[in-house]
Structure prediction request, 161 residues.
Amino acid sequence: MAFTFRSFAFALVLSATAATAQQKIAFGDLKQDTTLPVEVQADQLAVNNADGSAVFSGNVVVTQGEMKLAAGEVRVTYGTQKNDIQELVASGGVVVTNLGDAVEAQGAVYTIDSGVIVLSGDVLLTQGPSAMAGQKLTINLKDGTGVMEGRVTTTFVPGGN
Prediction:
């Protein structure tokens, strides 16, 4: 597809938007079903019954449907029921993938009930040949949208978005 006036105008709008503090994005090609089972794999598990938490460490991989989260450590906070996961707090080289999209960050907090993941610290989102960077990305898995904040930089391929 040739670089047309329309794609040039889109590039100008996108560039102007990238200079602001926030930019809305889409994550994945589908809405994530946050009621699907959450599977966690790790090298080690430490459970604290006193505060209702568990810490998975070493090559942690969390899977829910098509979404996958990988990190060095993931702290799981349970609800009143021992099998009711409230929140996952990931740290140490966090990578979240959903279909063709991927996000890298220093840390992430996934609140299961709301279906919201907040990634922070040198966030890099790649969607095919396009990329976006910032300091904080909030993804709503229920509707597949997100907001990037903090000196947002966008790189895109004209005609490829």
User: Anything to note?
Assistant: The first strand starts at residue 22 and ends at 26. The CA atoms of residues 74 and 90 lie 4 Å apart. The chain has one domain: 5-155.
